[in-house]
Structure of Exodeoxyribonuclease 7 small subunit:
Amino acid sequence: MPKATKSPVSFEAGLQELESLITEMEAGSLPLETALTTYQRGTELLQFCESRLVDAEQRIRVLEGAELKPFSADKE
């Protein structure tokens, strides 16, 4: 059963909860009403995670002078 509809404390916590909900739904054993509630919570978590990724990208743009640069593990 999904947790309360409060926002996760972090991106990682939101992603972990979302993955857990997906696993529950893929099992196919949830009653209809629970499945709908779980789906709704999943969409909330997806929006939360997407917004955190957009925020992170925006911060990187600021740090990189408004231009995203390819990531290279070789850079120091």
In short: The radius of gyration is 17 Å.
